[in-house]
Design goal:
This protein has 158 residues and is an alpha+beta fold. It has a single domain, classed as Peptide deformylase (Peptide Deformylase), CATH 3.90.45.10. It contains 2 helices and 7 strands, in the order αβββββββα. Strands 1-2-3-6-7 form a 5-stranded antiparallel β-sheet. A two-stranded antiparallel sheet has the order 4-5. The protein is globular. The structure holds zinc ion (ZN).
C-alpha cells in the first residue's frame, strides 16, 4: 500500500457518503494500523477513512494511549447534550463549538469483524460522533461557525 496522505478541506472525498466495509482481512487491519500512525504523527485523537481518501465506513481513535478501531458504526444517542470546542485534522486551524449528545452507545465491528457495542461518554463520545460524521460527509463547519480565535487550539483535533 502506498503511504497514506491526509486530505484537507475542500477535498471532495470529505463530502462522500462512505460505503460499508464487507471484508475483514489483513488488508483492513494494515490500513487501520497505518491510520493510527498517521493520526499520532499529526497529533489527532481521531481519523476517519475519508480523511485519507478512502470512502469506507471506518475510523480510528486514541485517547490516553487506548487505541480504538471502529467499522460500520451506528450511533444511539442518550439524553442530554453538551457543547465542546472541536478541531479537525482536515480543517487546519479551524475550531467550532459543537453541541452533541454527551453520552452515546456506538454499535459496530472491531478490526476482526467481531460485532461490538461501545458505551461512551465525555471525550470518547465526542470523538466517536465526530468520526462517524466524517463517514457521512459531515464536517464541524456544518455544525456552526468557525471560532474567531484559532491561535490557541484546544488540542482536541478530531
Ligand atoms: Zn475530523
Amino acid at each position: 500500500m502506498s503511504p497514506l496522505t491526509l486530505r484537507v478541506f475542500p477535498d471532495a472525498v470529505l463530502r462522500d457518503n462512505c460505503t460499508p466495509v464487507e471484508r475483514f482481512d489483513s488488508t483492513l487491519r494494515d490500513l487501520l494500523a497505518e491510520m493510527l500512525v498517521l493520526m499520532r504523527a499529526r497529533k489527532g485523537i481521531g481519523l476517519a477513512a475519508p480523511q485519507v481518501g478512502l470512502c469506507q465506513r471506518l475510523f480510528v481513535a486514541e485517547i490516553e494511549d487506548r487505541p480504538l478501531c471502529v467499522i460500520n458504526p451506528t450511533i444511539q444517542p442518550l439524553p442530554g447534550e453538551a457543547p465542546f470546542c472541536e478541531g479537525c485534522l482536515s480543517l487546519p486551524g479551524v475550531e467550532v463549538n459543537v453541541t452533541r449528545p454527551a453520552s452515546i452507545v456506538a454499535n459496530g465491528y472491531d478490526e476482526h469483524g467481531q460485532k461490538r457495542q461501545w458505551p461512551a461518554t465525555g471525550l470518547w463520545a465526542r470523538v466517536i460522533q465526530h468520526e462517524t460524521d466524517h463517514l457521512n460527509g459531515v464536517l464541524i463547519i456544518d455544525h456552526g461557525p468557525p471560532l474567531a480565535n484559532t491561535d490557541s487550539t484546544t488540542g482536541n483535533i478530531l
